[in-house]
Amino acid sequence: MTETAVHVDSVSKKFRLYHERNQSLKSAIMRRKISVHEDFWALRDITFDVPVGSTFGLIGSNGSGKSTLLKCLAKILYPEHGSISANGKVAALLEVGSGFHPELSGRENVFLNGSILGMSRKEIQRKFDDIVSFSGVEQFIDQPVKNYSSGMYVRLGFSVAINVDPDILVVDEVLAVGDAEFQQKCFQKFEDFKAAGKTVILVSHSMGTVKQMCDHAAWINKGNLELVGPADPVIAAYEATYPHQG
Ligand SMILES: Nc1ncnc2c1ncn2[C@@H]1O[C@H](COP(=O)(O)OP(=O)(O)OP(=O)(O)O)[C@@H](O)[C@H]1O
Ligand SMILES: [Mg+2]
Question: What's 4-241's CATH class?
Answer without folding.
Answer: alpha beta
